[in-house]
């Protein structure tokens, strides 16, 4: 494993144009394209491709195409979970999705961070990443965006179009930009 991959996995600054990381993203892109080309009746092929791509795909879980990710192997999805159309998971850090999770269409789980103050480092393609954890029995409405480093608690619902910038506790309904707790469930 090269230096920049080690740095990425450790949550440190790394160069995203490192040849090893570029090759791994190309592999993931090829598998995503293969998955996205499958027909609706080809559930066995879809499942096989996802099992090659992802770090874990729990029993009874499925994803609708179009699906896109950076690396794939940093994504773990629990049992009986569902990702609707056009999910984008930028997995430069681990993304963990629990059991019985429903993720609406066009949701984005984004782990990548870029230097804000150090303009030169950003120009040179340095970035870091922070993991995302989604608890069990969570429901995201369509178009939810989850930012790097966020944990969403068990049994929580996030309203459509919300941008989740900080952790959400168990058993709440949250919505807005940035998402805030509206009420307990």
**Helical coverage, percent range:** 10-25%
The percentage of residues in β strands lies in: 25-35%
Mean pLDDT across all residues, rounded?
97
Provide a count of the helices: 4
Shape: globular
What structural category arises from helix and sheet content? Answer: alpha/beta
C-alpha-based Rg, rounded: 16 Å
Query: How far apart are the termini?
Result: 45 Å
How are the strands of the biggest sheet laid out side by side?
3-6-9-14-17-19-20
In total, how many beta strands?
20
Note the run of SSEs as H and E: HEHHEEEEEEEEEEHEEEEEEEEE
Low-confidence stretches: none
- Largest sheet at a glance? 7 strands, mixed
């Amino acid at each position: 494993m090269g230096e920049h991959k080690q740095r990425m996995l450790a949550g440190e600054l790394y160069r995203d144009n490192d040849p090893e990381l570029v090759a791994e993203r190309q592999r993931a892109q090829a598998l995503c394209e293969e998955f996205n080309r499958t027909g609706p009746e080809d559930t066995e092929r879809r499942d096989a491709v996802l099992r090659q791509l992802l770090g874990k795909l729990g029993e009874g879980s499925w994803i609708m195409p179009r699906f896109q990710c950076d690396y794939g192997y940093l994504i773990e999805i629990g049992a009986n979970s569902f990702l609707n159309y056009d999910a984008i998971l930028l997995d430069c850090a681990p993304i963990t999705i629990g059991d019985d999770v429903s993720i609406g269409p066009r949701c984005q789980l984004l782990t990548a961070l870029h230097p804000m103050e150090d303009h030169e480092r950003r120009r040179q393609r340095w970035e870091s990443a922070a993991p995302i954890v989604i608890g069990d029995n969570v429901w995201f409405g369509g178009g939810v965006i989850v930012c790097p480093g966020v944990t969403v608690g068990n049994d929580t619902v996030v309203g459509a179009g919300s941008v989740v910038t900080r952790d959400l506790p168990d058993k709440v309904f949250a919505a807005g930009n940035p998402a805030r707790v509206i009420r307990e469930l």
